[in-house]
């Protein structure tokens, strides 16, 4: 798996994209009151997994846990996703959870 670009790397490599991500996505969209940060994290992980964007999942796993999601809930979401987005998408996403656990040991 290719490493994802964290905020610092993105800022060095594509400063304008980093600025827009921060201002529009994280300072506006993520703070809208209609959905909680927890719900937004669950939705984001599901979409990333469904679209096969596993490179972005590790960062969002950590962010989701900061937003109150527990590992068991994330695993259940990816299991549920298998029936709507396909087995490969779900298994690839679950692989990110396992990889994240190994890195934290």
Quick structural gist:
The protein is mostly helical. The chain has helices at 7-13, 15-26, 37-50, 57-66, 71-85, 87-104.
Describe this structure in words.
Pfam families: CMD. One of its GO terms (molecular function) is peroxiredoxin activity. InterPro entries: 4CMD/NDH-1_regulator (IPR052512), AhpD-like (IPR029032), CMD-like (IPR003779). Residues 15-99 form the Carboxymuconolactone decarboxylase-like domain. The protein is mostly helical and 105 residues long. It has one domain (7-104): AhpD-like (Up-down Bundle). The protein contains six helices and no strands. Helix 3 crosses helix 5 (71-85) and helix 3 packs across helix 6. The protein starts with 6 loop residues before the first helix and ends with a helix.
Features:
single chain; 105 residues; AhpD-like; 72% helix; globular
- Shape, per Cα inertia axes: globular
Total helices: the number is 6
End-to-end Cα distance, whole Å, is 19 Å
How many structural units, i.e. domains? Answer: 1
Give the uncertain stretches in residue-range form. Answer: none
CATH homologous superfamily annotation:
AhpD-like
CATH architecture descriptor? Up-down Bundle
Strand content: under 5%
Order of helices and strands: HHHHHH
Protein name: Carboxymuconolactone decarboxylase family protein
Domain Carboxymuconolactone decarboxylase-like: 15-99
GO molecular function, one term: peroxiredoxin activity
InterPro entries: 4CMD/NDH-1_regulator, AhpD-like, CMD-like
């Amino acid at each position: 798996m290719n490493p994802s670009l964290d905020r610092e790397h993105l800022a060095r490599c594509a400063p304008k994209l980093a600025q827009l991500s921060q201002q529009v996505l994280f300072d506006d969209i993520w703070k809208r009151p209609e959905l909680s940060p927890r719900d937004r994290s669950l939705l984001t992980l599901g979409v990333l997994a469904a679209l096969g964007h596993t490179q972005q999942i590790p960062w969002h796993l950590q962010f989701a846990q900061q937003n109150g999601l527990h590992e068991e809930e994330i695993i259940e979401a990816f299991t549920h996703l298998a029936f709507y987005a396909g087995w490969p998408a779900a298994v690839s996403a679950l692989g990110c959870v396992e990889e994240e656990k190994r890195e934290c040991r």
